[in-house]
Amino acid sequence: SGSLKISAVSSDVEIDDGSGSMSVSGVASVIIDDGSGSITVTDASGDVEIEDGSGSITVERVGGSVRIDDGSGGIDVTDVELDLVIVDDGSGSLDVTDVRGHVINES
């Protein structure tokens, strides 16, 4: 548990975290598997994939696609170049703005 901050990494990032808040910015692409806690991802030049048990998710300025599997908590996605896929959104709000690809809600 505890907070995690990753920024200005010009390669792909993979995170497996139990709990605590997380902030990721300025990465190529990111895969996140998180138990609980808030997640913020900004300025990813490639794809973003998030699997989250609970907690809010904020994603902004993504050059690729976004895929989210969320147990509970609000999801806020803004400025995505390709597709947004919501695999599951157990509970919580979903706010989507400026997705230039398809928005697919499988939940």
Q: How is this structure best described in words?
A:
This protein is mostly beta strands and 107 residues long. 0% of the residues lie in helices and 68% in strands. The protein has no helices and twelve strands. It has strands at 4-9, 13-19, 22-27, 30-36, 39-44, 48-54, 57-62, 66-72, 75-80, 84-89, 94-99, 103-105. The strands form two sheets. The chain has a six-stranded parallel sheet, with no helix packed on it. Strands 2-4-6-8-10-12 form a six-stranded parallel sheet, with no helix packed on it. The model has no long low-confidence stretch (mean pLDDT 95).
Secondary structure: elements and pairs:
Blueprint: E1 4-9, E2 13-19, E3 22-27, E4 30-36, E5 39-44, E6 48-54, E7 57-62, E8 66-72, E9 75-80, E10 84-89, E11 94-99, E12 103-105
Parallel strand pairs: 1-3, 2-4, 3-5, 4-6, 5-7, 6-8, 7-9, 8-10, 9-11, 10-12
